[in-house]
Amino acid sequence: xxxxxxxxxxxxxxxxxxxxxxxxxxxxxxxxxxxxxxxxxxxxxxxxxxxxxxxxxxxxxxxxxxxxxxxxxxxxxxxxxxxxxxxxxxxxxxxxxxxxxxxxxxxxxxxxxxxxxxxxxxxxxxxxxxxxxxxxxxxxxxxxxxxxxxxxxxxxxxxxxxxxxxxxxxxxxxxxxxxxxxxxxxxxxxxxxxxxxxxxxxxxxxxxxxxxxxxxxxxxxxxxxxxxxxxxxxxxxxxxxxxxxxxxxxxxxxxxxxxxxxxxxxxxxxxxxxxxxxxxxxxxxxxxxxxxxxxxxxxxxxxxxx
Amino acid sequence: xxxxxxxxxxxxxxxxxxxxxxxxxxxxxxxxxxxxxxxxxxxxxxxxxxxxxxxxxxxxxxxxxxxxxxxxxxxxxxxxxxxxxxxxxxxxxxxxxxxxxxxxxxxxxxxxxxxxxxxxxxxxxxxxxxxxxxxxxxxxxxxxxxxxxxxxxxxxxxxxxxxxxxxxxxxxxxxxxxxxxxxxxxxxxxxxxxxxxxxxxxxxxxxxxxxxxxxxxxxxxxxxxxxxxxxxxxxxxxxxxxxxxxxxxxxxxxxxxxxxxxxxxxxxxxxxxxxxxxxxxxxxxxxxxxxxxxxxxxxxxxxxxx
Amino acid sequence: xxxxxxxxxxxxxxxxxxxxxxxxxxxxxxxxxxxxxxxxxxxxxxxxxxxxxxxxxxxxxxxxxxxxxxxxxxxxxxxxxxxxxxxxxxxxxxxxxxxxxxxxxxxxxxxxxxxxxxxxxxxxxxxxxxxxxxxxxxxxxxxxxxxxxxxxxxxxxxxxxxxxxxxxxxxxxxxxxxxxxxxxxxxxxxxxxxxxxxxxxxxxxxxxxxxxxxxxxxxxxxxxxxxxxxxxxxxxxxxxxxxxxxxxxxxxxx
Amino acid sequence: xxxxxxxxxxxxxxxxxxxxxxxxxxxxxxxxxxxxxxxxxxxxxxxxxxxxxxxxxxxxxxxxxxxxxxxxxxxxxxxxxxxxxxxxxxxxxxxxxxxxxxxxxxxxxxxxxxxxxxxxxxxxxxxxxxxxxxxxxxxxxxxxxxxxxxxxxxxxxxxxxxxxxxxxxxxxxxxxxxxxxxxxxxxxxxxxxxxxxxxxxxxxxxxxxxxxxxxxxxxxxxxxxxxxxxxxxxxxxxxxxxxxxxxxxxxxxx
Lengths: 306, 306, 254, 254
Hints:
Largest interface: A-D, 57 and 53 residues
Distance between the termini of chain A: 54 Å
CATH topology of chain A: Glutaconate Coenzyme A-transferase
CATH architecture of chain C: 3-Layer(aba) Sandwich
Radius of gyration of chain A: 20 Å
GO molecular function (chains A, B): transferase activity
CATH topology of chain C: Glutaconate Coenzyme A-transferase
Strand content of chain A: 15-25%
Helix content of chain C: 10-25%
InterPro entries (chains A, B): CoA_trans_fam_I, NagB/RpiA_transferase-like
Order of helices and strands of chain C: HEHEEEHEEEEEHEEHEEEHH
Shape of chain A: globular
Mean pLDDT of chain C: 96
Largest sheet of chain A: 8 strands, mixed
Strand order of the largest sheet of chain C: 2-1-5-10-12-13-14
Largest sheet of chain C: 7 strands, mixed
CATH superfamily of chain A: Glutaconate Coenzyme A-transferase
Number of helices of chain A: 13
Number of domains of chain A: 1
Oligomer: heterotetramer
Shape of chain C: globular
Family (chains A, B): Belongs to the 3-oxoacid CoA-transferase subunit B family.
Order of helices and strands of chain A: HHEHEEHEEHEHEHEEEEHEHEHHHH
Keywords (chains A, B): Transferase
Protein name (chains A, B): CoA transferase subunit A
CATH superfamily of chain C: Glutaconate Coenzyme A-transferase
């Protein structure tokens, strides 16, 4: 028969399918003042740190930043660099390493609009979006001072409700994806799938690209299906100094260095935070990896996980 | 040191931990008139058919049956055997094999209270329970006749809402579990996790028990965590004549035989449906497996999947 | 080249599916599933096919008749739960949803629940419909029926299981539904549309070899009279791909 | 046998955890996590431990300091998403939740957000709290603080991040909260309770080697005066299991 394709359906489909792989700059294009950006991960794990640095290199400012319920390094860095106008957050810290110095300072100096959140108000707000609702009940927020101070929770006649949150863009980091945007978290997916579902645009940096056949061999490992994803950016060690679950540990030494720089008083022997930005942010990813210790350091972080 | 345990934490914990493995009869004890029972699976796949037969053998009646949004064989069987007082359902059919004869007959004879549902009203009702709410908005049910005929959807001032559904017991079938109740679906988990989360008691029949070490080797495969599960009943081919995803195919020949028996007019050469109950329901699982064709038939159903 | 009614319908439905769309299949959906897989291998490689069981972009060796057969999961790209599908729908991400019906009416309203008057036991009890909400949330609805008869194609459904254009005109929008609703209905006899402003079913094209009178006789409501354009017959490429790639075992031919 | 403050606290907290319970750990939670793993290996093998990252019943080789370290997932039993945790909480399945605080007050209210008067920039900005709702939904709340000082233990928190017994007595119930709230607060100096009917913090027992005056000085609100019962010191079995099984690298000792 004339019309019979010579290859299997799969091969044809794969051949003709649009790849979502792109450069970091293309993926992040358009993110700027007033963008509501959701940043994935949790604390200093699985965070799209390289993407955040790229945004800062591009001079981003005026962001409305929605952090995954517990956030850390990248939130502090964005705030410290002056890129954030409004922060929707439940938690910013470095856990046992300490508080988030730039977040704390900006809050205490009232340089930042902070919308107090909680896992329930963030998830409730995202779920409202997913379910086509203007807001979502979060009865368990009763009797907190968030009710008096946060616009992310309203008291209705039937109790507290979280208004819908629809991020303009979610920027996530995962370990693996194929070029069609099927994403695999090798540890916690946590809030990332719901960010992906609720956001208008989804950018995922991954430590490595895998074949579509790898995805299809274990479909239960796909944590975010391709149809939710707009851009896949392969970026080995793209989470550093944060960890990438299952692949490499967070770089505690670098985080401590960051904390010292970010916590130093202004003008203390030259601005330590400005120096941090110069040394570790305003440079491309390859140079960055070199500067934080190169292969030797990265191998050591891999080892800690193995 | 005197207090140092000689085994690892894991071994000790495992040793001392309560096994949730029990017999079908123990697991199903207490299910009776007015019990709101949620039955898992979808269409004629992953359904706890052996558990349903055990309930019928025990003479169950007066059930309030909540089916997974698309249901099939077991719903029809329970209705045909007169065990159901109230049915919450979105769909009952045998797909390409035909309509559900006993469901249809009971409905047309008004022998059954049917609460018309939809995936949204079932999930909305379950989510209301999960989220501690009296009901959950389901705006997309607008303009349907369910609004006039179903108590599982109410029109509020802000649109349709599904009242909370909290099953007394969920009876599910999955492929694998460990003895602590960590369940693994090898195909669709579909509605089962949300049934497990929303139900007061959770019983899972599984084709095979696996070791806790198997579960821990691939924690991402756990579809229902052990803390949600009350009883694990190992029951090879416990879904037959339905399929068990990844292990064996549905038995289309048996389903056709059932459909013929269930669809036969009353008294047509002896009541074919009563005969079906006698031949295939009122007997223990081992005898049942023998009667449906034994190892040869079961091997063939395995083969179809492999 | 000869073909079965169901092969024809799969080909005609495939032509309605566009590259890059996200579509959900329903129950008893061999035709829509075949159509979607066919579209993927012809003009819509980026179409996302979501099975009602949650399997995303399956890569079956053949056409399994049960839409939730476990074999659809082998080699698919992701597995969604019922809650994922609920969200996908409510969030408005679905581009299309395919529906059949026990009854379909002029305005594309769907009855899968029951016939006969309200308040009485049903004359006929249908299977019901699990994915009603997608008739409201999917950007457009695609209807199909292998049973083109006056019993199925009725003036007004006895029960609105899922809304089409309600009583036509702007009624759908006035009910608060923002999506486009039924855009096409495919049967063995013809392809129907729901043109503005009335949104009532009209014949878009007459299928190959069908007499107009047969369509008029088989339809339980008035249609704008012939002549009607002719449906472009399945091409060799379409049928070839359907048989060699999608439906290797000839499920749709039997 | 000597032990560190944090070892002591882990042991004392472990004693509060019961077999068969489901408990959630928070951030910076080495002590609660160690306590839960210790309880699992002593008297509560059926305790379910849920890490804030979603790892269920982890089986770590050692105590990782970050509660969401990827290594908690290796060998755990299940992985929940943020949504699973949300549901687990809202559905009332959690038996207990452990909280620290920037400020904790007499009635067990928790401030992790900010100090200083409302309407002004915060005097001190805390990290915030991701799991506030669990203070309402978990059947009971267990408090702990390594920093037992008048700055932490205040008469009234400046900001109620998560409610304890509010202003005491029946206020919690009157606010519509059905769960029991804070039951215990563990510090290096003492174990506190919140007895009926006032639900204000009192000393349940004084930790080994601590003078009562030190507790009174370190607490920024009035306490019923001594004498107080003595805390049972950690047993050899408790410390042995803690060091040999849970905290093999001595994180809590350093």
